[in-house]
Amino acid sequence: MSERRLFILVEGNDDERFFTSIIIPLLSPRYRAVRLIKYACMRSNRVCRFIRSIHRAGDELLLVTDIDKAPGVAAKKHIIMERFGVIQQGEIMVIIQEIESWYLAGLELEDAQRLGVRPLHSTDQVTKEIFNTSIPPQYTSRIAYMIEILSRFSISSACRKNRSFHHFMDRYYLDCGVTPDDAATEILVKREEGSGEGSGMNTPQDARNTEDGKDTSRGKSPLWDHL
Length: 227
Prior knowledge:
The protein is an alpha/beta fold. It has one domain. The chain is 48% helix and 10% strand. The chain contains 11 helices and 4 strands; from the N terminus they run βαβαβαβαααααααα. It has helices at 13-27, 44-57, 73-83, 99-105, 109-115, 128-134, 142-151, 155-161, 163-171, 180-192, 204-211, and strands spanning 5-10, 33-38, 60-66, 92-95. Helix 2 (44-57) packs across helix 11 and helix 8 crosses helix 9. The two termini are 20 Å apart. The model is unreliable at 195-205 and 212-227 (pLDDT under 50).
């Protein structure tokens, strides 16, 4: 396990919900802590100060963004680098098309049928609008529908159906056959052994401490430097 923390900057509530449920359990055994920070409503200069503080502390950073209307991944990364001048290209993860495509990618055929959702072989073209039109009529709440998907989420299915999700798993050397429950069990074992801080769920105080330069932890260069 690395002595560094990993800070994942996500855009909004749907991203935060997905990463909390699916991604943090997978990554927590690798780091002293994993923190989620929502950046979409933050001023650019504040985000830049925060990124600088992460770099100074020797911790790792990943900024997650939807591709939106950008013509390609490289173009989207360029847009983000223009907005946040201190971020490195390798610290940016582009979701294709939007986080909703990762949600639907995790539904196996049987679960899609149970929920009354049309099965998809690929979700690479799924946008927020397509997702919203796919919500079964029995769900009066979009959030309730998303939570139901996460409760049935199959990582192996998501790896097959969405290339950007598969790329995310590859860049962290994560097994597409693992489940969040498997990772959660590993976290509990490590906690009992006293080997780390725990899962490090979204804690704004940690973000403030790092931004204010109060964290004095040091480590090697971030993983992304050589990607």
